[in-house]
Specification:
The protein has 477 residues and is an all-alpha fold. It is built from 19 helices and no strands. It has 2 domains: 6-185, no CATH class; 188-274 and 356-476, no CATH class. Belongs to the membrane-bound acyltransferase family.
Amino acid sequence: MLLNSYSFILFFIILFFAYFLLCKTSKAQNILLLIASYIFYCTWSFEFIALIIFSTGVTYFVGNKIKEAAGNAKRNWMRFGVFFVLIQLLYFKYFNFFIENFNDLLHVFGMQDQLNVLKLILPIGISFYSFRMIGYLLDIRNNKLKEIPSFINYAVFIAFFPCIIAGPIDRAGAFLKNLEIKRAFSQSQFSDGLKQILWGLFKKLVVADNIATITGPLFETYHTLNGSALFVGAVLYFIQLYADFSGYTDMAIGISKILGIKIQPNFNYPLFAQNVADYWRRWHISLTGWLTEYVFTPLSINFRDYGKYGLISAIIINFLAVGFWHGAEWHYVVHGLVSGIMFIPIIWRGKMSKKIKSEHTIIPSLSEMKNIPITFVLFSLLTVLFFVTDMEMAVNYYKGIFSLSFFQIPNFPIQKEIVLLILLMMILEWLQRDKEFAIKELFAKRSIILRWGFYYVLIFLVFLFYIAPKGFIYAQF
């Protein structure tokens, strides 16, 4: 059941009225949320609902043991819990990757006895809810959670339906506070949530899905295209990936707002980032923040005696984890490795912690006019590693871009109306880049006729450019 489907609208309407009219206590609301979340998950992956329930039960039990224990016992319970979660993730997502590469290694040495790969189905959302579980256990170990929540509340945190498929990866402490009191209907939250859902639908259905009608055929015939067409395809996919993933996040946040639950943002206008560090502060914030806290920070402390070399090592390991998190393929690993290497000039100049202050004016500053296009092109090229099927395709695609045919006119048709829709999205986001989302306060000080007229235009565009429901790119991770 996709968030952008009619079946989800019906599902959410029923939940909405039951949540606010029938549930008289916070406990009743939380139980309803848990039931709804499991029903929602079953529509995606019915065969794995038992796995997520079992994992939730085990990690909740382990969390209690960590809280009660001290010294070595506390550390051992924590290690067991983290191992329990990781072994499932490694089995379902990475087992065949290791087997295939082990077989390749045997082949290099002329050995014929090879291990068989397994026909494994990847449980939907396992990368997202696994990190929630591990974060919960580590937060208990580090005394960041003062009290153990009820099992119902913890289970809601793990399986919360707007986030289970593609995040954000919330921290336990912040999320669980939402569940402690009864949520009353709020007209302002309802209005704000609907606007954010509308903007997410626009980005997903109007921008991302229509770009996909270009990039899909382009990637299938990439070997016949010239360098300029391949470069345009990389740029379009970068925008598509952003519109698709951030569109999902906007819908998830908007749905949560309506239910009186605040979840963390996942994007901060990354298309306008001004350097590598600025980009990663804006893109997939919940994942990069999670890895920064639980991977990069401990590594940087352990490597601090090695100065800049230690910091570089910690960053590269951290981004290798980012790449590997996305999938058991070498092109994801290389994506992470290159992302880490791109930080080296910033670290060497000692500008790692400096944040770029946006001007927040209609006309970009001179530094923005220089830095934003460079960063945009850089990450458009890096995102090639996301849509390729293997490293061979990546190498051939890059060879095509960096050839003399780059200076030719693209030999692939691109619909003008899709370019106009992309420009509309980017202009609105540029104008509102100091707001939570692009239409949050757009025309707020203008007449109600202009404001509502604009909303109706967006709704009209959603229906006009709507294609058959397409899945979200990040659901595969």
